[in-house]
Design brief:
Layout lengths: L4 E5 L5 E5 L3 H6 L4 H6 L7 E5 L4 H4 L7 E6 L2 E6 L2 E14 L4 E5 L5 H9 L7 E11 L4 E6 L3 H14 L7 E9 L7 E8 L9 H12 L4 E5 L11
Antiparallel strand pairs: 1-2, 3-4, 4-5, 6-7, 6-8, 6-10, 7-12, 8-9, 10-11
Amino acid sequence: MSDDTALVNTGDGSNLPTVAGDYHSKFADVPAVFDEIVGSGGFLPRVQFMSAKADICSSGAFPINHFALVRGTTNIDLGEQLDVFVLSYRFKAFDISGDDMIISYDPASETFKDINKRSFAQNSGCMFGPEFLMYVPSQKTFVTFFMGSKSARIESQSIMALLKRDDATNWLTLLPKKIPSKKYAPWWIGTGRACQTEYPIPSPEECERVVDAFDNPPAQQVEKVVEGETSERER
């Protein structure tokens, strides 16, 4: 046993070795892939804009118009503004009207078209739109950001316009945007603007590996709906 190793009494008569040192540094630089590997089902967590329509906000359990890092039933408050790096995008449609969540990533498929059509019915449990792959430096994790409501789909065009600019850096600041309405009370959605700050991101190899997996999903998949998982539905 080395000189810097001590014994910890476990209380059951046995001793376990523990190595002295800076334990904090062991966790300070955990690669972003950690969350992907150990997360529920191996899926990336998502960032979600929590409007007043989100169940968790209407119950008073989460601040309205904040962004959340969502992993299953766990929601981490990321505040009203969030700096992210955008790596890719794809199209997604999902149906949670039954016990299983039906997900399609192929806009040309009959499943995607059917979800698209049924999404316009009130409380259909169906949504479709672009889904972005992002890196969140404050959390050191890759995430998805889905813009599947009618208002969010329209707003996604503004985000794409920013990303297509000749001077684009792919750094965005996500923030709330108020949507006025003559017929209904105003509501809020998440949008993005060019971020003036840049942060370190994972290695090119790690980014490419995650992008490759994100860009090549199965055309369709079925997942169990997680009880208590935060709804993504909004106007």
